[in-house]
Amino acid sequence: MATNEFDLIARYFAHQAVNRKDVALAIGDDCAVLDVPVGSQLAVSTDSLVAGTHFLSEADPVRVAHKALASNLSDLAAMGATPAWVSLALTMPEPDEAWLAGFCQGFFALAEYYNVQLIGGDTTKGPLSLTLTVQGFVPQGKALTRCGAQSGDWIYVTGTLGDSAAGLALLLGQKSVDDAALAETLIDRHYCAQPRILAGQALRGIASAALDISDGLVSDLGHILKRSGVAAVIEVDKLPLSEELRRFEPDAEKASQLALTSGEEYELCFTVPEVNRGAVETALAHCGVKATCVGQLRPGTGITLFNAGEAVDWQLQGYDHFAE
Amino acid sequence: MATNEFDLIARYFAHQAVNRKDVALAIGDDCAVLDVPVGSQLAVSTDSLVAGTHFLSEADPVRVAHKALASNLSDLAAMGATPAWVSLALTMPEPDEAWLAGFCQGFFALAEYYNVQLIGGDTTKGPLSLTLTVQGFVPQGKALTRCGAQSGDWIYVTGTLGDSAAGLALLLGQKSVDDAALAETLIDRHYCAQPRILAGQALRGIASAALDISDGLVSDLGHILKRSGVAAVIEVDKLPLSEELRRFEPDAEKASQLALTSGEEYELCFTVPEVNRGAVETALAHCGVKATCVGQLRPGTGITLFNAGEAVDWQLQGYDHFAE
Questions:
Q1: Do A158 and A266 reside in the same domain of the chain?
Q2: CA–CA dist B272, B31 (Å, integer)
Q3: A124 vs B48, B145, B323: nearest CB
Q4: What is the ipTM of this complex?
Q5: Looking at the 3D structure of chain A, how many domains does it have?
């Protein structure tokens, strides 16, 4: 069993299938040395996952790795960026080869799928946690930001919402379902969301603002509203719910509330000016992603929810790691 | 007291004096969006510091911040890169405003000194730790790597070695000195090393290989030897020791051993072909850094130590977080 930091790094992280031409120097020196294409800007995002806060210590390391990288790639997707590189800082109490092997399996499978090269990082001793920094390219001036939305723009989300929260409730034993296959599907959706990379790229020049849903739709949409200086109306009966979520939560109102607050979905929420609405469907059809219009921006501040044409006053909270 | 993750980030990290023109979009969106100068390559390094492993939980947060950023900037220095941006992932058990205020003071003071802009990161709940990813620029093809050293090249180190280990021994109570001012100086050197940014830049085109001393000279030099396929002779009586280290450890042999193994020094170790030796002094004089030749590369593998002309067989170990 390897007990030396450098042996561990060499053994598990120095070998990978991805070998990008824009990586002049990768793992093994003081820094990675990288080439950014002329005409592109660099998009950079950092996310930490801490055992006990973001995942259970006993969680399958394959899934933890997928979730960690997917959540970070999702931030690139939200900018319309093309992923290129990732740095990994891994802290663990002691060298655990079985855990590392599983982690690498999940990590490199997703990294290879998106042609992302691991360019470096750090391995340290301490309570289990990991921090990833992903980097990607976006054509000069074309990044999808949070501040371009205008009153009248339509609000869209990709995929379906709520499954991640349902899977987490099952994981935590807060709720149970009789159907084991249903439970497994929802838990899998909690861990194994796919970042909407191609959808984000397809929305460049079409969406006026975009972000990924990591803290719940109402919480995340709030960031667009604040940065863009607008209000929103959401029609909750239009929220896209999966068949599995409807089976998990047959009460339609409660299911909608799950969809509004479910964090770690890694679907995109984006806004589209009226003139671009026709382009959305075409652009996303090419990447096999369905988007649903769930509301519209208005002058003012805040979010108003409508259910079947009636304003509703649901008390909802987004996910906040530090909230009581 | 702010208890919301977003409030904390906004309050402590959204305001800084550095405002670089190459940062198109900084904190507050899914990604930072950045411009890399044409003709430059990007140098990227990631380092984690974990409470209990890399610093004591009760350590002054001003010093922890300095150490975290300095150690990461030191990796850029070792490549000859010019620092530009930093991402910060901060994990803490609960929002601690006094700690955050101290941390920001130390962090931004050093960031401003090197014109480094904080471009984003993550704030999460969990055991105290921080991970930084720094990025900088280096002219195309000019990065100082670990693999260009050749037999016959001379081995240099900047500054003095050993003070960091002495400061740590005092901090941990493994040793004491009567002179309180001496103790304070050595502890300060443990926490507050200055990354050799200008020296690294000055050595581009002069040094054949370089790295920064984070795990101890013998351990770090080993990386150059392995990557470059050479052996080294070090003349331990030529190691640059501070006056304070000599007072801390009057035994010359023990002082040399401290200098050989002291980690977290953040001095540069570099190799220079005979033809460039004259250029070293001139280049470094411009940035006020002294470098000392401590040995030479030879064909073969491994490091041989000489003390006053005699080979010595000291058993030394570099710092390894995972070693028993």
A1: yes
A2: 40
A3: B48
A4: 0.90
A5: 2
